[in-house]
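Hello forum,

I keep getting stuck at the same step: I have a sequence, I want structure tokens, and every attempt I make locally crashes halfway through. Rather than fight my setup again tonight, could one of you with a working pipeline run this one for me? It's a single chain of 171 residues.
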Amino acid sequence: MTKVYNVLFLCNGNSARSIMAEAILNREGAGRFYAYSAGSSPDPEVHPATMALLAELDYPMDEIKPEHWDDFAREDSPPLDFVFTLADETINETCPVWPGQPITAHWGIEDPIPDQGEELERTVRGAYHALQRRIALFLALPLQSIDSLSLQHRLNEIGYSTDVASHAASA
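Reply #2:
Ran it on my machine without issues. Output:
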């Protein structure tokens, strides 16, 4: 039986980037990964531009909602294997202690939501595609045959990746 890895994506508001990452990994990594998302100060709802893009791309929308990251630090929370911060602002915040002693990395993606009008759709799509590329690199890693130091190094590299082709060869 193959291990299913639990992954948590973190942002501040949990209304755009982390929600998109959760949706992408749950689709692309189905059967190997289960993704969650949360924020340090979650918004009351997912941003409408994020919802519109995910609906357009036929992602299931039933379970998608902002959650507080404390919800994943409780004793009854699923043990986490990986935690990725997506907002540069979360680097300076004190995160809870996560169950499962996960491997962590920062995959900073610029917040697409401050833009308005036509720029909003473009920046939300840009964030989606950046996340999709990084998650593809993550999915290509040989998790069961790589030592933890090498894995940490590769996860950090993914966070700095802007070009899939140059990093996919090293995975």
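Strands lie at 5-11, 33-39, 82-85, 103-106. If your local run keeps crashing, start a new thread with the error log.
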